[in-house]
Design goal:
mainly alpha; transmembrane helix; BilAc:Na_symport/Acr3; Bilac:Na_transpt; 16 helices; Bile acid:sodium symporter family protein; transmembrane
Length: 317
């Protein structure tokens, strides 16, 4: 029975993009079904981060010392370059202040845990992807408030201290608790591990549906600008990761992981911060990004899965 449950969990996790799309469409059609989720966005994201912490060990960060150049490249792309791209697309698409702030929050967010699953499907370097996600999650406490203040402050005043406190509550504390659970409750953690990807995917689906539900009227009335900005940011992130892999001559496996890590964001964190510190309209970009990155990420990782793998510097990811 347990083995069957694990198989079902793995299958649902791989095709969770379809579930996200279906629930998102339902949230826009019948928003009353998901509005109840909105007050619980922060604890739900904390649950996801706790699950992520349970999958980690202190040794997982050994890549930072073993391959510091590759790690620094990924972190710089995830935070700095994606934040600048978000700022550019805000201006290019002439987004209103609240929506622009939401897109900046997405751009400054760390990589999402979904990138680890996508890297696995794509036959990418999973330990590298996990290290980027884990380290980026902690560095978000420093980079996200600073970059949001620097870039988003053009439109709306930013409470840097409040962002630091919120990120600590939503991300840092739950991840540290998860690490502690892995260390001191090993038996329970091992039994829970096979189901954590599914739990995370279902939880983020609920979060996305809840955000879309409370913004359903605004989204349906919004122009194409916010949709184009979100799609362009995601595709630019995937392209940027691929380009950097070629420039720095990373092997194909590492290049695929970098590509997916840069384009896949912790957009749930961006939506939670938007709701807590700005407005429901500011959360639209994060919710739409969550939906779109599941579509693009699933398509790209499955395409990579069908391509040959070797260990030479990549000419084609």
């Amino acid at each position: 029975m347990l083995r069957l449950a694990i198989i079902i969990s793995a299958a649902l996790t791989r095709y969770m993009g379809l579930v996200v799309i279906a629930c998102s469409a339902l949230a826009l059609w019948r928003p009353e079904l998901f509005r109840w989720v909105a007050p619980y966005v922060t604890p739900l994201l904390g649950l996801i981060m706790f699950g992520m912490g349970m999958t980690l060990r202190v040794g997982d960060f050994s890549h930072v010392l073993a391959r510091p150049r590759h790690i620094a490249l990924g972190i710089a792309a995830q935070f700095g370059l994606m934040a600048l791209l978000a700022f550019v697309f805000c201006h290019a698409c002439s987004l209103p202040p609240d929506m622009a702030m939401g897109l900046v929050l997405v751009g400054t967010a760390p990589g999402g845990t979904a990138s680890n699953v996508l890297a696995y499907i794509a036959k990418g370097d999973v330990p590298y992807a996990v290290t980027l996600t884990s380290l980026g999650t902690f560095l978000a406490l420093l980079f996200m408030p600073a970059l949001t203040w620097l870039l988003g402050g053009v439109w709306i005043p930013v409470d840097v201290g409040g962002l630091v406190v919120s990120i600590s509550k939503i991300v840092v504390v739950p991840v540290l608790m998860g690490l502690a659970a892995h260390r001191f409750c090993g038996g329970l953690t091992r039994r829970a591990l096979p189901f954590l990807p599914l739990l995370s995917a279902l939880t983020i689906t609920l979060v996305v549906a809840g955000i879309l539900a409370i913004n359903a009227a605004n989204i349906l009335q919004a122009g194409l600008d916010i949709f184009m900005a979100v799609i362009c940011l995601n595709l630019a992130g995937l392209a940027l990761g691929s380009l950097l892999a070629r420039i720095f001559r990373l092997d194909r496996s590492t290049g695929r992981a970098l590509c997916l890590a840069v384009g896949t964001k912790n957009s749930g964190l961006a939506t939670a911060l938007a709701l807590a510190h700005f407005s429901p309209a500011a959360a639209i970009a994060g919710a739409l990004y969550s939906v779109w990155q599941n579509i693009s990420g699933a398509l790209l990782s499955n395409f990579f899965h069908t391509r040959p793998m070797d260990i030479t510097p990549n000419k084609e990811l």
